[in-house]
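Subgroup meeting minutes
Present: P.N., E.W., G.H.
Scribe: E.W.

1. P.N. recapped why we're keeping a running log of single-chain structure predictions: easier to compare across weeks, and new members can see raw inputs and outputs side by side.
2. G.H. added today's entry (165 aa).
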Amino acid sequence: MDIKRIIKHLFAPPWAVTRMFPAETMKAIENAIRESERSHDGELRFAIEGGLKLWLLLHERTPRARAIEIFSQLRVWDTEHNSGVLIYVQTVDRHIEIIADRGINARVEQRQWEAIAGRMQTEFRAERYEAGAIEGMREITALLARHFPPTGANPDELPDAPVVL
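Output recorded in log:
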């Protein structure tokens, strides 16, 4: 059990997320998602989480495991073509996970998602949160456009607005 991690999460101020992702940045992310989904048949969700609850920390929930839980909770898996992608940002752990549904994972390798997340983390470390998020979505858009090109009728199956958990 990592006591330092538990303390960091428990004492993370709730306003820290809004400081990193103010309303203007959230709107820019929403617009980037909306624009992205015009060029492919995938669906994007962007979720940001600050400090985790104690029971998650006591069960040593990793950012990856938490991202998979959020993928399910936000029903990112619930798209007609199994083409949902979640970008999960854990602000206290300073970690980004990209989780893709099985329709996309059959075509895009995990290492590609990890590389995009790594570049986003580099931007976030430099406190360029909006730029990192937007650039990450551009890279994801390029992958989705290549593997899930638009077929014409692409209903907006998931909300475009980013969510703070």
